[in-house]
Amino acid sequence: MPVEFSEFQRKKKRKRDQNQFPLLRIIFFFTLIVIAYTNGWFRMLVDMLPLPGNEEPPPPAVEEWIEGCTSYDGTPFELKDDYAQCSWIVNDSLELPNAFLRYIKGLASDGAKIHWVATKKDFGEALLVVLEDSTRNVFLHMTREDSSRVWISSKTGCLFPGPCPHVPLGWSALSIMDNFDFEGLETLISADVFTGLGEAPIYPILPGIVLEAGRDSLGMFVEISHGNGITSRMFGIGSWKMAPVVGREITVKDAVGRLSPQDSSSFFLTVRQNGLFVRWKDFYKSTHPVDSAQIAIFKKHLPF
After folding, report:
1. Phi and psi torsions of 268, nearest 5°
2. Tens digits of per-residue pLDDT, 245-270?
3. CA nearest to 232, candidates 264, 197, 261, 256
4. Which residue range is the domain that position 263 belongs to?
5. Among 120, 110, 107, 103, which Cα is nearest to 88's?
6. Of residues 66 and 26, more confidently modeled
7. Strands (E), 80-148
8. Is the domain of 147 the same as that of 196?
9. Would residue 17 count as lying in a domain?
């Protein structure tokens, strides 16, 4: 009997456990679900899973022109019409990104400002560079006839850096063409002729130092060294305006002589570069690779 009773007790207990309803567990788990949903734990869990779209967003991209500017300690500025500017204040430790800017820095004093202006898409190719020192100089980056890019001084229209010759008279030079007839004008084989009003002043084409001055069969003459292998000789001068002294420094504003006193008068000019004679029109063209009309159009399309 005891054995049978114990077996009956176990069977009875087992049956009661199977029929018990787990209400407390359901309430507990439902409460956890509500708390998790309310606190956003489900969203956090989904975000942690390696699912598409859960990757870390890339850092915001810095535009290349800004990065290029700030990497050389420049200050970037946005301009209108998708143009931009990078500016520096000159000091001894300033490093600049290209040879042209380093050359400009060499011309500037401490505290001067240099501005590089270009399009955002092609910031490495400047439209212009501005040097603000005791004066303000603007250098234009222009395209010439052969499609090469050159720097031009906005102030003078000359190739920069390089010599910037001035026309010695306010009037014209006779153009010597390839088929020019030199008969009776042998002097023009190695010289150019300028024509102007009588007694008009004659100026040096470049600043320089007087090498020689005097008189020959054609009248007064003066020879000047301009540096960089360039010399000029003006002869057939009617009279001195300021008698040149050998060794004296003269500027393009110092008239050396005058034309003869006639309604129309001429004098001759020989320009030599590294000892070789060069025609005035070719010399002038090499130093002025774009004309004034092209410069005016270029300036008109600048973003300011």
Report:
1. -115, 150
2. 999 999 999 999 999 998 888 899 99
3. 256
4. 186-280
5. 110
6. 66
7. 83-89, 113-119, 128-132, 136-143
8. no
9. no
